[in-house]
Amino acid sequence: MKHRVPYFSEVIARGRVKFCRSIASHSGRGPLVPRFIYVLILSFAVVGCGHGELKPETQVLGNAPRALSLGSEQALRKLFEGNQRYVQDRLIHPDQSRSRVREVSNEQHPIAAILGCADSRVPPEIIFDQGIGDLFVVREAGNIIDDAVIASMEYAAVHLGVSLIFILGHERCGAIEAAVHNQYEGHIGTLVDAISPAIDLVQGKEGDPIDLVSRAHVDLVRTKLMNSRPVLRARLESKQLLIVSGYYDLDSGRVEILKQ
């Protein structure tokens, strides 16, 4: 049976020592995700051991002063703490007050940059339970990457000090379906052309073709961003930036970290 990378919120909710140990033991089997991500998952699981879920008072505070430079590990932690709250229907809607509007009116210091699909069912600020000024978001149907997207990510990294770029794919994507079934009209062909390499990549593989292509496409987008020179590649090599890809489950609301 194929090992599945666990949903972050699933790890936390189980909160059992036995499961904590299974995560720790798996972390040495292969480079599915950066090691610190396993440490991050394990830390949450340990906190939840014996309790089942985090108590409200241990969750992220809403309008805490924003650090000008949040590390990539801290940023990833905040995203998945928010997704845990979203899945458990315990949203705190941080940074959505009038005072927050005034706070960020002259400058912004987002914790992460999100490259997501334009699908109306996948709004990053909501599924990660973040607020105004917390996320720098670029959305295009099908998570398409082009020069404008790369430039936007460069701006986030260099001028806004973002240390984490999160590529958020999702299941049952309409743009992916159009590409797989080769049924489209008008300018949608531009999206199909950009997705086609992922279709070629999964030829002959077993499984749902839409899901396979969606995951492969997100991985290709991540690779392109990581190899983008000179700006993003240089920041990756100097450990100033982390680029991670994830996958959103439309039914559960969970975000899964994909193979890195």
Would you give an account of this structure?
The protein has 260 residues and is α/β, with parallel strands linked by helices. It has a domain at 100-257: Beta-carbonic Anhydrase, Chain A (3-Layer(aba) Sandwich), CATH 3.40.1050.10. Helices cover 45% and strands 10% of the residues. A five-stranded mixed β-sheet has the order 2-1-3-4-5, sandwiched between helices. Helix 2 (17-26) packs antiparallel against helix 3 and helix 9 packs across helix 10 (209-226).
Order of helices and strands: HHHHHEHEHEHHHHEE
The CATH class assignment of the domain at 100-257 is Alpha Beta
Coarse structural class: alpha/beta
- Strand arrangement, major sheet: 2-1-3-4-5
CATH superfamily membership of the domain at 100-257, which one? Carbonic anhydrase
Overall 3D form: globular
The CATH architecture term of the domain at 100-257 is 3-Layer(aba) Sandwich
Radius of gyration: 18 Å
Determine the CATH topology of the domain at 100-257: Beta-carbonic Anhydrase, Chain A
How many angstroms does the end-to-end distance come to? 20 Å
Helix content: 40-55%
Question: Topology, pairings included?
Answer:
Blueprint lengths: L7 H7 L2 H10 L8 H14 L23 H16 L10 H6 L8 E5 L7 H4 L7 E5 L7 H12 L5 E7 L3 H8 L6 H14 L7 H18 L4 H7 L4 E7 L6 E3 L3
Parallel strand pairs: 1-2, 1-3, 3-4
Antiparallel strand pairs: 4-5
